[in-house]
Write a structure and sequence with these properties.
The protein is mostly helical and 65 residues long. It is 82% helix and 0% strand. The chain has helices at residues 2-29, 40-64. Helix 1 (2-29) packs antiparallel against helix 2. The two termini are 14 Å apart.
Length: 65
């Protein structure tokens, strides 16, 4: 019982940390995704913000189960 509570709390906390980092990253750098003239560094900036979001969603999914 206590292990399940700790697992859910930890999953929710990690999901929040990773998703919040991603939201703040995109708010800070503002990548123009619809722009036709993407440079190489736009791909790097998007990659840096997108991966923590995916990891955060994974942890939020663990919390729901």
């Amino acid at each position: 019982m206590k292990f399940n509570f700790i697992k859910c709390w930890l999953a929710e906390w990690l999901g929040y940390i990773f998703c919040e980092f991603s939201f703040r990253w995109f708010g800070l750098v503002d990548v123009p995704y619809d722009s036709k003239d993407w440079k190489w560094y736009h791909h790097v900036i998007y990659f840096i913000g997108e991966k923590p979001y995916v990891i955060g969603c994974y942890f939020y999914g663990l919390d729901d189960s």
